[in-house]
Design goal:
By secondary structure, this protein is of the alpha+beta class. The chain has 2 domains: about 80 residues, Fumarylacetoacetase, N-terminal domain (SH3 type barrels, Roll); about 210 residues, Fumarylacetoacetate hydrolase, domain 2 (Alpha-Beta Complex). It has 6 helices and 19 strands. The strands form 3 sheets. Strands 1, 2, 3, 4, 5, 6, 7, 8, 11, 12, 14 and 17 form a 12-stranded mixed β-sheet that branches. The chain has a 5-stranded mixed β-sheet with strand order 9-19-18-15-16, with no helix packed on it. It has a two-stranded antiparallel ribbon with strand order 10-13. Strand 18 and strand 19 form a beta hairpin. It binds magnesium ion. Magnesium ion binds next to strand 6.
Length: about 290
């Protein structure tokens, strides 16, 4: 199942995406339970309530009749707008470590981005005038489905609600000047996310998905999540040894080779009007563009 937040007729909804959009926000009441009003509420449902909803959606066509929108008539929004936290992993692809001659870390290197950096699909990435070296990082993002601490690698799968795409946009000039990552990666709009959440049961193995980025149609990143140093479940294990993971948390799992700063013979940074497309197999395509702002 693919779940999106979207805007239609000047209102915000969330719902299920296939060849059309089914708004769960406005669906008629179900027999056995009322519809969850937000994605966070949906994630927190018990398996029993979830099954009741799925059955109702399959059996009762009439409850859907005022809740269907054409995809062309909706504006997609970032699927999670207020995650408790966004945890990111640095240097987590063998090919990305190799392109910068960096050593493979023994444990995941983690840092955080603020939720105010989130923006949605097809929205601008705002490059402040003083940022000179703007760059992209395509990343598989995990949406945490339940609270946990000290989660084992074996149990980690049960804590994943689904997956989306996150672009860990980075101001390389500031990142390298500060010698840590907070300021360079925390500007507003530096975490485009979407286009929707694909539930974990539809993904199969998250550790073997094609991941690609195009800038103005030019293929820049072309790898697979199988090149991750620490896979999704190992990352959940390591992060949860440090901090309690909560429902709706986002974990961005690192980027493969092909970022602008390490391009040969010289770096290629993003400029206003550039378009970015990130595609992850089985998940979708996240598109954004760059504008200069204050
Ligand atoms: Mg990153």
């Amino acid at each position: 199942m693919r779940i999106a937040r979207f805007k239609a007729e000047e209102r915000e909804f969330y719902g299920i995406v296939d060849d059309q959009m089914l708004s769960i926000t406005t669906i008629s009441p179900f027999n056995k339970c009322s519809a969850p009003q937000t994605i966070e509420e949906l994630i927190s449902l018990s398996p029993e309530s979830w099954n009741n909803i799925k059955e109702a959606l399959e059996d009762q066509e009439e409850i859907k009749k005022d809740a269907i929108y054409k995809l062309a008539d909706v504006e997609l929004l970032a699927p999670i707008v207020n995650p408790p936290k966004i945890v990111c992993v640095g240097l987590n692809y063998h090919d990305h470590a190799a392109e910068q001659d960096a050593e493979i870390p023994e444990e995941p290197i983690i840092f955080m981005k603020p939720r105010t950096a989130i923006t949605g699909p097809n929205k601008p990435i705002i490059k402040p005038e003083f940022v000179k070296k703007l760059d992209y990082e395509a990343e598989l993002a995990v949406v945490i489905g339940k609270k946990g601490k000290d989660i084992s690698v074996e149990e980690a799968k049960q804590y994943v609600f689904g997956y989306t795409i996150l672009n860990d946009v980075s101001a390389r000039d500031i990142q390298f000047k500060d010698r840590q990552w907070t300021r360079g990666k925390s500007f507003d709009t530096f975490a485009p996310m979407g286009p929707y959440i694909t539930t974990a049961n539809q993904i199969g193995n998250p550790n073997n998905l094609k991941i690609r980025t195009w800038v103005n149609g030019e293929l820049r990143q072309d790898s697979s999540t199988k090149n991750m140093v620490f896979n999704v479940y190992e990352i959940i294990h390591h992060v949860s040894r440090v901090m309690t993971l909560e429902l709706g948390d986002i974990i961005a799992t690192g980027t493969p080779a092909g970022v602008g700063v390490f391009m040969k013979p010289e770096p290629k940074f993003l400029k206003p009007k550039d378009t970015l497309t990130i595609e992850i197999e089985a998940i979708g395509k996240l598109e954004n563009f760059v504008v200069e702002g204050s």
